[in-house]
């Protein structure tokens, strides 16, 4: 049974579930692509739409917000941060870097993607 202030497991997401949804969407859109500045905005929209649809299809009582950043791989650094204030027992925010830094077989050598997912219970 859930503690007071905690939602039952079937009404929340695990970090692993969110990671899987983000990874599936990013890989479906970017895995075979080479960085092309003209295509980036289309790719970002498609990634965000895929993630939102996947989250919405769960029919869990949340409002969702997804952001995506795609950057060409260069010697430049990339730093991203997020902060929010919400109900800790139900709401969540998670950020993903693709490809994973320690992946043995990196799916894409020309770009990075950073996706942030916010889930706020209503």
TrEMBL record:
<dbReference type="GO" id="GO:0007018">
    <property type="term" value="P:microtubule-based movement"/>
</dbReference>
<dbReference type="InterPro" id="IPR038586">
    <property type="entry name" value="Tctex-1-like_sf"/>
</dbReference>
<dbReference type="GO" id="GO:0005737">
    <property type="term" value="C:cytoplasm"/>
</dbReference>
<dbReference type="InterPro" id="IPR005334">
    <property type="entry name" value="Tctex-1-like"/>
</dbReference>
<protein>
    <recommendedName>
        <fullName>Dynein light chain</fullName>
    </recommendedName>
</protein>
<dbReference type="Pfam" id="PF03645">
    <property type="entry name" value="Tctex-1"/>
</dbReference>
<dbReference type="GO" id="GO:0005868">
    <property type="term" value="C:cytoplasmic dynein complex"/>
</dbReference>
<dbReference type="GO" id="GO:0045505">
    <property type="term" value="F:dynein intermediate chain binding"/>
</dbReference>
